[in-house]
Amino acid sequence: MKLGRDNWAADHVSDLATGRFAPSPTGPMHMGHLITALSSYCSVKQKMGKWLIRIDDVDSDRGSTESGNLIIETLRTHGMIPDNEVTYQSIQGAKYRYRIKQLESQTFYCSCPRRETSAHQTYMGKCYQKKGYQAGHSIRLRSHKTIMVSVSSSNTEVEDGITESVDDFILQRKNGDISYHLASAIDDGEQMTEVVRGDDLLTTTGYQILLMKKLGLSIPNYTHIPCLRFKTGEKLSSQNMAPALANDRPAANLRNALWYLGAIPPTNIQSVSGIIKWGIGNLFLSKLPEILVPFQNYDVTDVHPRTQTIKHSV
Ligand SMILES: [Zn+2]
Fold it and tell me: Which CATH number is 4-90+187-303 given?
């Protein structure tokens, strides 16, 4: 298995594009993660770009260092080596707080329950008065029901447009943690030219683009790929016991991931680096199935050893 500087993609890096895989460290990687990571990796490498790993560990109630390390190791084992050092959101609080300061005239302190915007809507008038520091309060962005950029559907880039208004959403939680929306918007806006992620995050994109615009950041191209789901329709996640990827069989895992994405490498390509190189040449985000075949907990490529791109039913 050839990794590191022997890796074909690592020898062809330019500044033309920058993309990333940004997992929350809430458990080991599963097939759904691999599909997203591989899609972003192949897409940015098709543009000879840089591919980065960012650990989205801004939420102190969830995730662990061990999970983060395991995810990085699994990505490396599967031939996806970042072009820069791995970054961690949890140690960049100062940067995020500086950005909140930039938005000061548009923010206020609020003690309404985190997930109950209806509660906040009852007290909006009162909350808006709280401009100075208030202990035990979150910081919300006053949205004025601004436009939200529309996100038409999965597997497409975000298009500009007016769809629905945005609530006064949280930038910093009551316990001091930075919100997912803010941290992602800043990191993606500062560094990325393209963001490839699961369509379960479609609804968050509008919030993040709104923040990028307010902060004067560049908006990356977004592509939302279909999530891998169980037969029940539930998305694979650490919470629902999606099986962890076995690090001792990366080539089989990669072939399976490509199979779900409708791209089947020839059977004579069996090495990790060979499969990755084939993916860069043949996996195109514009040609992904609209819905993925439900997750099967076995080697799908053994059951369906097809040699050409299959058409998934929608
Ligand atoms: Zn409030």
Answer: 3.40.50.620
